[in-house]
Amino acid sequence: MATPSRYVGTAQSRQDGPAKVTGAAKYAAEFTAPDLAHGVVVSSAIAKGRITAIDTRAAEAVPGVIKVLTHENKPRTAWLDYNYRDQVAPPGSPFRALNGPEIVYGGQPVALVVAESFELARHGASLVKVTYDEEVPNTDLEKNRGAAYVPPKKRSGIKPPPDPRGDAAGAFDKAPIQLRQEYRQAIEHHNPMEPHASTVVYEGEGKLTIHDKIQGVNNTQGYVCGVFNLKPDDVRVITPYVGGGFGSGLRPQYQLYLAVAAALDLKRSVRVVLTRDQMFTFGYRPETVQTVALGADRDGRLQALTHDAVAGTSTFEDYQEAVVNWSGLLYHCPNVTLDYKLAKIDTYTPSDMRAPGAVTGIFALESAMDELAYATGVDPLELRLRNYAERDEGEGKDFTSKALRAAYEQGAARFGWSKRKAEPRAMRDGRELVGWGMATGVWEAMMMQSSASATLMPDGKLELACSTADLGTGTYTILSQIGADALGLDLDRVTTRLGDTALPEAPLAGGSWTAASSGAAVQAACRKVAETLFGYARGMADSALANADFAHVTFADGEIRLQTDPSRKVGIADAMRAGGVATVEATETVKPSMLTAMRYSAYTHSAVFAEVKVDEELGVVRVTRVVSAIAAGKILNLKTARSQILGGVVMGIGAALEEESMLDHNLGRIMNHNLGEYHVPVNADIHDIEVIFVDEHDDKVSPLGVKGLGEIGIVGAAAAVANAVFHATGKRVRELPITIDKILA
C-alpha cells in the first residue's frame, strides 16, 4: 500500500492546543470526586537524623481534619524493595514515604494531614510538631570524591562506559598538544509548570481511578499495584494532559504513595498536591565533576582522550546516566579511556532530566574541544571536521545515518560563522563584548516496544489510542497525522486518545523515543485496518479492485484507489457495508529490530552556534542569537518539531547562565527552593533562535525513519554559550552556571 504524505512532514498546529488555552484540558489536580478529601504533606525540617516524637493532637483537633498519617500509623504496604521499583528505578532501595523515623534527606515527607478542604489540611499541617535527633548531613560532593565508586549494579537501559581502546595515557604523554581541565555542573531541578499531584478516586471495594502527574500511566499503575498489593484491573490511571515533565514525571513521586495510602485507609477519594517548595524535595539533575584530557597533534587531530566523571547520588539508590560515553563516539580518536563513578550524599536520588548525562558530558567535552581549538590555532568548526567520526568507534558499529556534516555546514552558513574573528575580545558592540561559540550535540535515537489501536467509525472518522503521554510535545498531533495519511483522511477527522491504562500499552514518554515507538504502532494498526477494508472492497460483487493487490492501492479522500488507474476505486463506506461491519478496529504491537541494534548505532546530532554580548564592566551576559542545526531523520511535524528544539535551546541557555539549586551543606537543604530564587530563562533573556532541520534519510532506525527531538535541542547548547562567553571575554569559565561573579572574578 502506498502512503502519500499529505500531513506527515508538514507544519500542523497542535490538536490539543484549543483545550489547553481555553482551560478545557484537565490536569492531575483538577479532577474531582463527590467525597474528595485533601492531603497536605508535612516536610522534615532536617536533612539527616531521626524523628524522636511527632505530636499530631493539635492538628487532629481542628474541625474538618480527618486524619494525620505518620510512620506510626500508616497503612501496611509491601515489604520488599522489589515491589517499590518502578520501570526506570536505579539499583538500590527505592524511597518509601513514612516508612520509619529515619530522616535521609532534607524535605523528606514526615506526615500527611487529610482534611475536608485544602485550606483545613494546610492549617492542620502547620500544627504538626515534630521533634528530631539531628545528625550532621553529608551533602558536599567535593568532600566525597575520594570515596567515589564504580556502581556495582548497572541501571537498566543505561550503558556503562565502553572498554578502553588503545593506550590513552601513553598517547597523551607523547602528544605535542596536551590539555587537561576540570568541569563542573551544578544541581538543577526540573521545575515543570504543573506541580506534582495525584487525585485518587476511591471507587469502592478497593478499586481506584488515579489521576497522576506522570509521564507514563502504566508506570504509576504498576507501582501502585506492587506497593499496595492490588490487581491491575482494580487500578486505572488516567492522565490525558501533563503540564511539562522534563523527566521529573518518569518515576512515581511520593505524593502518589501518600494519596493512595490515605484513600485506601479512609475508603474515600483523596487529592495530594505538592507545593513549589516541595518540588525541590525529590529528583534533580545531579552535580557532576568531570576531568577531560585531550592529546592532539599540532593540526588538532586527536591522539588521546580521557573523560572521567564523578556524580552525586543518594545514600539509598545508585542513580546512573551516560555522562562520558559520548566522548567515545563523537570524534575519531584511536586512544580513549572513559570512567564514571558515583559518590553518595545525603539527598534524594537524582532523576532523569532532559537529555540526562548528555547535557552534562557534552558540556565538558565540547568546552575541552574549544580549548583545544585555541591551543592549536584551528578554527573550532574546522577542528571538529578534522576529527569527524564516520562510525561509532566506542561500539565498533556503523551509524544508521549521520548528517552531522551537513548540520555543521548549514548551521555555520546561516549563522555567518566565516565572519568570526578568531581572537578573544576582538568583536565588540558598543560597551558590550561580542562572542561567537559553537558546539556539537548528540543523543540516542531509540525505539521501544509499543502498542496502539486504530478504529474506523461508522461516520468515517478515525480514532487512535495508546497509553503514552503528551508532555506538551505534540504527540496527539503527530499520531493523528500518521493515521490521517495512512487511511487517506482529512486530519480533522482523526482523533487520538492518550494517557489511560485502559488503552493499548505504550512506553513512558521520555528519551525522545515516543514518536518512533508509538508512531510506528499507530502506523501498523492503521495498516491492519487498511488491509481489512481492502479485503472487504475486493470481495464486493463486480468490485473495481477485484484483481488488485494490496501493495498497489492507495487510500485517499475516503476511497481505496488503484495506483496505476485511480478511476478504479471503492469508497471506504461502501467497503464497510459490504463487510457488514459498523467499525473496523485493529490493535498492533511493534518492537525495535534487535538485528539492527546489533549491527548499527543510532543517534541524532546537532550543530549549535551561539552569539553572546557581555557588558564589559558589569559582566552581564545576553545570548542574542542561536542557530541550531538538527539531523534527526524524518521530521513528522515542522511546527511542533521546531517548538521542541526552541524549548531545548532555551533550557540550555538556562543551564549555561542561570539554573542552580544551591545546597547549604551545614543544613543539607536546598536554599533557593522557589521560582523567585531558582532562576530560569524568561522572555527578556531569550532573543533570536533559528532552527534548521537538515535532510537525513534513515531506513534502519525505525519504521518511520524518525529519530526523536525531545532531547537533542538542549544538548550542546550550554557548551556553545560557554564557548561564546570565552570568545567574548577571554575568560574560560568551566563551571555551570556562568554567573556574573565568575566572569568578574
From TrEMBL:
Chain intervals for the UniProt region annotation (Disordered): 149-170
GO terms assigned for molecular function: iron ion binding; oxidoreductase activity
Stretches assigned to the Aldehyde oxidase/xanthine dehydrogenase a/b hammerhead domain: 22-136
Database matches in InterPro entries: Ald_Oxase/Xan_DH_a/b, Ald_Oxase/Xan_DH_a/b_sf, Ald_Oxase/xanthine_DH-like, AldOxase/xan_DH_MoCoBD1, AldOxase/xan_DH_MoCoBD2, AldOxase/xan_DH_Mopterin-bd_sf
Protein name, as recorded: Aldehyde oxidase
Annotated organism of origin: Methylobacterium platani
